[in-house]
Amino acid sequence: MDTSCTPGEEACIDERQGSILTKGKSKSHIQCSEDSLAGAVSQRACVYCGARVVLNPVTDAVHLVHGPIGCATFTYDIRGSLSSGSEMFRNSFSTDLRERDIIFGGEKKLAACIDEVVASHHPPAIFVYATCVVGVIGDDMIAVCKEASLRHGIDVIPVESSGFKSGNKSIGYRAAADALLRLIRPADDRPVIRGRKVNFLGEYNLGGEMWVARRYLKEIGIEVNVAFTGDSTVAALKRAPEACLNLVQCTGSMHYVAMSLEQTYGIPYMDVNFFGSENTAETLRKIAAYFGDEKMKQRTEALIEREMSAIAPILKKYREKLAGKRAAIYVGGAYKAMAIIRQLKELGMEVVISGTQTGKKEEYQCMSGMLSEGTVIIDDANPAELEKFLREKNVDVMAGGVKERFLAYKLGIGFVDHNHDRKDCLAGFEGAVQFASEVYTTTCSPVWKHMKKSTEVKP
Amino acid sequence: MSGRVKMVNENQCHMCMPLGGVIAFKGIENAMVLVHGSQGCSTYMRLTNCEHYNEPFDIASTSLNEKQTIYGGEANLRKAIDNVIRVYKPGVIGVLTTCLSETIGEDMGRMVESYVRDSNLKGVDIIPISTPSYSGTHTEGYWAATRGIIAHYARAVEKHSKVNVIIPHISTADIREIKRLLELMGISYTLIPDYSMTLDRPAGGQYSKIAPGGTSAGDIARMAGAPATIQFGLTCPDELSPGLSLQREYGVPLVNLPLPIGLENTDLLLEALQTLGGRPMPESLALERGWLLDAMADSHKYNAEGKPAIYGEPELIYAFAGTCAENGAYPAVIATGTESNKLAARLNFLLEGADEQPLVIEEADFAEIGAAAIKTGANIAIGHSGGKFLTERLDIPIVRAGFPIHDRVGGQRIFSAGYAGTLAFLDRFTNTLLENKHASYRLLKKEELKKQEAITGDE
Predict the structure, then answer these.
(1) How does the average pLDDT of chain A come out, rounded?
(2) What is the pLDDT of residues B261-295, one digit of tens each?
(3) Which of residues 164-203 of A touch B (CB under 8 A)?
(4) For residue B164, which of A8, B137, B176, B229 is within the disulfide window of CB 3.0 to 4.6 Å?
(5) 387-426 in A: which are within 8 Å (CB) of B?
């Protein structure tokens, strides 16, 4: 075991051994989906964070965080989701609980805050997020939201996202899913009219990615009913039952919603993936095949042919520069990790480290199948482990989130942002070019040459 | 002065207490921070600091979950300290509480004491600080931690010649400038907390998990024997004031000064340094003062057109308010997210010469700051990235200063202190006004002309 760490080594903690494995060399099962180890400096967030990521792109809703100020400040307009209409979702509302509220309860203040927000902004819906303290002091958020909903005639939806429930964001995804399902629940028993419209689940319109996929779908003859939740509105989400099919992209956050929609409304679902040119082409073919319409299939092939031939020479250029370079991946979910692995391989690169914050056992198995022998696979990594493997594996470029970025730079390694904060579109054929260009720019930057030199001259 | 009428906080101007505490500990040599709460708190604080400082920013968490929230988090705390010691090998561990651990009533002092006793711990100082988010902002958290760190180490010692210098939360460039001024004036000192290197590391050399630099425990232990304490803390609450407690407990005279930002404020520091036995102002500093004065004269008519909205942490906005006032750019709005009982009185005195008194708002959010800016006709802002909607929605440009700055690079080293820093700030301020003027004056005149012609035409 040359790459996975042995107990007693500086960078590692015994209890973390089971969460790190080297493909082909060590145990076949990874320890995952467990609570983070105290003091291990996990890169994970909390239940609230998971819920907020999923719901935040609902553009015209008010997002009200019920708790002391921090949780709201830390999430104040930090996401790159784009809107074609309302910008309400970018505001950060907090009940700003103080000591007296902790002692006497925060229900009255919550109700007053809801009233204020309704009076000043007239939103069609308010999501009220529970934070740790609210869970402990026992505010009856459900009752307050229900009363406010009746008082104002709009949806006031509690999101049960008390942070301490788990350090695992996926529990928060579930809280968000429950909130969405509550919103969708039809107000009356009107019959649902269905056309050839699809919902696009697990797509957050970062850098306008939903718009790219929607353009492709329109070209082959399919209309997007509503995305969950990128560039969505409250009214559009309520019309979700009108779709005939649910496309599920970020599986971690949306499988549960898809299953619920199937159960309640009989809408089938299919997994899709618009990250990377091959994934995009496969996805479009899969959708066309589902509808079984020959004309649609032809249009799909024409689109793929046109886009692929447009980007092929560009990708070829990058492939020549990047072939053989060594990459590391550490991202939130396995779905994203696998999409990145595939794209990096298409660019001729070797993935030597791959890890996630919230991957599940079967996802790790699937991921492992895409990786070559000797690759380090890691669940819930911490900076010490990442540093150790980045050094040992002689990595040229890393893909991850903001917290990993500066560690990579300090070690003289390129970095690709694949997180909710990014501003650029990485989806579809054009996104594949953007991704390749970013990988090239950072991997082959002249800056690293100078950093290396200055490291060498120092004692 | 406005008491808080509004309940909801819309777009936050302040952060939570533990965040400030974390920054203070990052200024202590060989220190690591452990946050006793749910996993998300540490991750959010890391994210915010990474984006501002552009540095890896490790914070450990006790990762409390549902079970510990009910039965207590002592086991997690002990395990977390074990793991932090093992991986980071720190000399100091700052343990900060959160809303969660405070609400469930964790007795930090006892738990830390029993850990130290049971593990027979040597060579690692564990310093618990109470920082419940609902009791204050990051400003109070910063002061509380700084005071707590000093209280932990300070002992009655023999008198020596090193002056204590206690700084509020400022940029790393400003810390370096204050140190340079002290050295130029021939003053030997202990500056705390000194994160000028730890949170702004130069590249080159080996990367280490805990950045080199910071105030040493040995120096802090001798602070009680200093001839005086200079504290840039006019607005620091008495009960949190590190300088005041050194004066009360050990008789170290406290010289409370404004931050040396602005001509007069910097003069005050240099006068104090001379009184404390420093040498007369060296020629090089006299030149810097001359250049600043020269620029003030050159720019005074442009600056007179500036009506700034200044927001952020009390100590910083007090210094910037003075700087603007001495240049004839009388503040239109002065706002802080903090509740400060000292700021307003100080400001009244400072702004006696202004024709119109500014709107001073405490416990402010950006909804209020924006409304105040419209009401007063503010045409420029000074503050952190949280105010970005002032530009985006109200066309008011921001001269960035303070924390956090996540939408520009170099936020950690924005230079504003001393004569040289004030000159750099003043040029940024004046040029922002000029840029706006040049971009708009032709168009404004043209529109005015058209309007007049339309009126004449109608007649």
Answers:
(1) 91
(2) 999 999 999 999 999 998 999 999 999 999 999 99
(3) 164-167
(4) B229
(5) 387, 402-403, 405-407, 410-411
At B345-381, the pLDDT tens digits run 888 877 777 888 899 999 999 999 999 999 999 999 9
* Residue of chain A minimizing CA distance to B61: A39
β-sheet with B60-61: strand ranges across: B60-61, B31-36, B92-97, B125-129
Q: B110 CB near a chain A CB, below 8 Å?
A: no
Q: What is the CATH number of the domain that holds A156?
A: 3.40.50.1980
* Burial classification of residue A239, based on how many CB atoms lie within 10 Å of its CB (0-12 exposed, 13-18 middle, 19 or more buried): middle
The alpha-carbon gap from B362 to the nearest alpha carbon of chain A, in Å, equals 14
Tokens 């007179």 locate to B304
| AA identity, residue A344 | L
pTM higher than the cut 0.90? yes
Residues A167 and A211 in one domain: no
Distance CA B235, CA B344 (A): 9
Domain ranges of chain B: 17-153, 163-202+209-275, 283-442
A202 with A250: CB under 8 angstroms?
Answer: yes
The answer to whether B394 touches B371, Cβ cutoff 8 Å, is no
Residue B113 neighbours by CB distance under 10 Å: 13
Q: State the alpha helices, DSSP H only, in A39-131.
A: 47-55, 69-73, 99-104, 107-121
CA dihedral angle for residue B208, residue B209, residue B211, residue B216, rounded to 10 degrees: -110
Its CATH class, for the domain covering B163-202+209-275, is alpha beta
A106 or A9: whose pLDDT is higher? A106
Of the candidates A66, A120, A116, which has an alpha carbon nearest to the alpha carbon of residue A96?
A: A66
- Across the interface, which of B104, B135, B406 has its CB nearest the CB of A136? B104
Contact yes or no for A387 and B37 at CB 8 A: no
Instruction: Give the SS3 label for residue A439.
Output: helix
By CB atoms closer than 10 A (0-12, 13-18, 19+), residue B454 is: exposed
Is B454 an interface residue toward A (CB < 8 Å)? no
Do residues A52 and A200 make contact, with C-beta atoms less than 8 angstroms apart?
A: no
Q: Nearest residue on chain A to B57, judged by CA atoms?
A: A403
* CA dist., res. A48 & res. A218, Å (int): 35
Q: Measured between alpha carbons, how far is B270 from B263 in angstroms, rounded to an integer?
A: 11
Q: Which residues contact A315 (CB under 8 A, 6 or more apart)?
A: A277, A346, A347, A432, A433, A436
Set of chain A residues whose Cβ sits within 8 Å of the Cβ of B336: none
| CATH fold match for the domains B163-202+209-275 and B283-442 | yes
Beta strands in B195-247 (DSSP E): 229-231
Dist. CA B368–CA A75, nearest whole Å? 19
Residue A228 lies inside a defined structural domain of this protein: yes
Interface of B with A in 129-168 (CB under 8 A): 132-135, 137
Q: How far is the C-alpha of A209 from the C-alpha of A201, rounded, in Å?
A: 13
Expressed as residue numbers, the domain containing A172 is 47-184
> Would you say B38 and B100 are in contact if contact means Cβ atoms under 8 Å apart?
yes
CATH of domain B17-153: 3.40.50.1980
**A-B C-beta contacts closer than 8 Å:** 232
B109/B436 Cα distance (integer angstroms): 55
With CA atoms as reference, report the closest residue to B401 among B457, B324, B458: B324
Residue A398: enclosing H or E segment and its boundaries?
A: strand A397-400
Alpha helix positions (H), B89-171: 99-103, 108-119, 138-153
Are both A54 and A86 inside the same structural domain? Answer: yes
Whether residue A25 sits in one domain with residue A107: no
Q: Report whether B1 contacts B344 (CB < 8 A).
A: yes
Q: Which DSSP category does A164 fall into?
A: G
Nearest CA in chain A to B138: A70
Q: Does B349 touch chain A (CB under 8 A)?
A: no
d(CA B48, CA B44): 6
CB B179: neighbour CB atoms within 10 A? Answer: 16
